[in-house]
Amino acid sequence: MLTRSDQTVPDCVEVLEEIRPIGLRHLGFKDVGVSPQVLDQLHRGIKDAGATSYMEVVSTSVEASLRSARVARDLGVDRLLGGTQVEEVLEILAGSAVRYLPFPGRPFDHPTKLAGTPAQVEADCRRFHAMGCAGVDLLAYRATEADPIELVRAARRGIAGTLLVAGSVQRAEQIRALAAAGADAFTIGSAALDGSFAPRMGSLRSQLRAVLDACR
After folding, report:
1. Averaged over 70-80, what is the pLDDT?
2. Are 192 and 208 in contact (CB under 8 A)?
């Protein structure tokens, strides 16, 4: 994710060019931090690189979240992540190729935190699956009431689609724990851009290569 502190970084287009030689196949951004025009330029760059594109909704109001869903539809992103207005977003995306993965649980604040028990997360995942969602975007490591890995296990019981974990993935051991608990994917942004994932490395490319190594 070309993001820091739940916002797309202002120089996202330049960052994309910097990391292009690594050949990443999954790249994304948030719905806040830059103008729609910059998001369009960034998205075109991601698709030109041959990658699957992701946009995550972190806007806190209903009106802004639905507006962001329309932006995702108009951009033509491959995956729209986040948000809680599931029925309304699915209506907005109807007829498009955008696949939707909403937030289970009770997200709040910005940067986003997650309230909710494992039982609530599992119930949400079952409901979203029945509604036709492609998966869920679980803020496991932003949890305020439950153990992150227990939330992942609960979500895995509830969803047959993609289980993506977003937010505060900062260490290789977290990546391994997520895989063991049944997660299919995760997002990482700040830890790579801040250089904290691999503290001894000096470049963003090296940070991302360390993330890829942790996935193997």
Report:
1. 97
2. yes
Contact 27, 57 (CB under 8 A): no
Return the CATH number at 49. 3.20.20.70
User: What's the total number of domains in the chain?
Assistant: 1
CA gap 116, 175 in Å, rounded: 22
Please, are residues 103 and 67 in contact by the beta-carbon 8 Å criterion?
A: no
pTM: 0.96
Quick: pLDDT tens for 91-113. 999 999 999 999 999 999 988 99
Which residues constitute the domain of residue 61?
3-215
54 membership: H or E segment, kind and range: strand 52-57
Q: Which two tokens stand for residue 67?
A: 């507006």
Q: What's the distance, CA 92 to chain centroid?
A: 19
| Tokens encoding 81 | 């992540």
As to burial, measured by CB atoms within 10 angstroms (0-12 exposed, 13-18 middle, 19+ buried), residue 30 is: buried
Lookup result for tokens 């994309």: 16
